[in-house]
Amino acid sequence: MVVIPRACGIMFHHFSDKTHRHGQGVWSRLRFANFLDRMGKRIVGADKWDYLATSRKLTNQVCLTFDDGLMSQFDIAREELAARGLSAFFFINTAPLVNRVERMEVYRKFRTSNFDSVDNFYSQFLERVSKLNLWESISERVKASKKYLSNHSFYSENDRIFRYVRDNVLCPEQYYEIMDKWIKAEVGSLDEFAKNLWMNGENIKTLHNDGHVIGMHSHTHPTSLFGFHQEAEYYANREILRGLTGKNPTAVAYPCNLYNDVITSMVMDDLGVSLGFRSSYDYNGRNMLEMPRKDSADL
After folding, report:
1. Residues 31-73: pLDDT tens digits?
2. Are residue 253 and residue 187 in the same domain, yes or no?
3. CB atoms < 10 A from the CB of 239, how many?
4. Is 124 within a domain?
């Protein structure tokens, strides 16, 4: 197991069992249970971690965080947490709660479920991008992406190339057009393909009633700054979560580390948020709105 020398959040996404399919970066129930048992008392509940953080009393404690409101978290992780009396942060992007298909997860399911390997998907994806004539050569693309997301050590070279092209070469509309046409040709309706990916409102109410902390994660979970209307994203996010829990969320996790000084100094202050998490570990945690997290893929 990777040594975690200082206090941080540990960031989880997908889990697998007989209902939820295994794939790249997915944790099985057994692996998660073993991890919780091995970490033992270093894991503290969300409320206690919040208190220790805001009172500057953290040493090497870790908290558990779950991003994106995924149904596999409710079905699998929630049960393992309950068995150990642990509470966690669940950061919810709310577009799926108002019947808006959130493409990022649908696209992830497609590339991990419908190809022999994720590298096979990447190869076919780059073939489609090359037809747009946005870059002169494959070598240029590889060179430009070598250092992209270098703080996420678990990404392969092909992972980095794909994410670089997605986030920095294509605009959202170009990416959506490529992926939507591809999925419809292979599997049909995006809505049908997206079934059972996310929690519903009742699931989130249950998590809240169980004592977990429900936090913000933007409304639509953008993957780049193109078209990222920061205030609107978080105000919509806050209103939907408040409608479900009856409380204003006071914690946030920034999707893909998309935030800036306007977010931390103005928007979060106006929303009453006191604790914020990055999606990477490369920060020392002195700022309560930029706490570091270790991705579970690193473990």
Report:
1. 999 999 999 999 999 999 999 988 889 998 999 999 999 999 9
2. no
3. 12
4. yes
Q: Residues 49, 129: one domain?
A: no
How far, CA to CA in Å, does 187 sit from each of 118, 149, 184?
17, 31, 6
Cross-sheet strand order for the sheet of 293-295: 275-277, 251-253, 213-216, 89-92, 62-67, 8-12, 293-295
Angle (CA) 61 64 70, round 5°:
170
pLDDT of residue 51: 92
Q: Give the closest residue to 23 by CA, choosing from 159, 93, 103, 115.
A: 115
Q: Residue ranges of the chain with pLDDT lower than 70?
A: 1-3, 135-142, 151-152, 224-228, 283-286
Instruction: Return the SS3 of 15.
Output: strand
The pLDDT assigned to 138 comes to 54
Let me know if 104 is exposed, middle or buried by CB neighbors in 10 A (0-12, 13-18, 19+): middle
pLDDT of residue 62: 95
What per-residue confidence (pLDDT) applies to 19?
A: 80
C-alpha 56/C-alpha 52 separation (Å) is 6
Residue 26 pLDDT: 87
Residue 16 in 3-state DSSP?
strand
∠105-34-57 over CA atoms, to 5°? 85
Domain CATH number, residue 253: 3.20.20.370
Q: Is residue 3 situated within a structural domain?
A: no
How many structural domains is the chain composed of?
A: 2
In this structure, what DSSP letter does residue 43 have? B
Give the other-Cβ count within 10 Å of 114's Cβ: 14
Give the separation between CA 288 and CA 273, rounded to whole angstroms: 10
Tell me how far apart the alpha carbons of residues 123 and 138 are, in angstroms, rounded to a whole number: 11
**Range list of β-strands (E), the chain:** 8-12, 15-16, 27-28, 62-67, 89-92, 213-216, 251-253, 275-277, 293-295
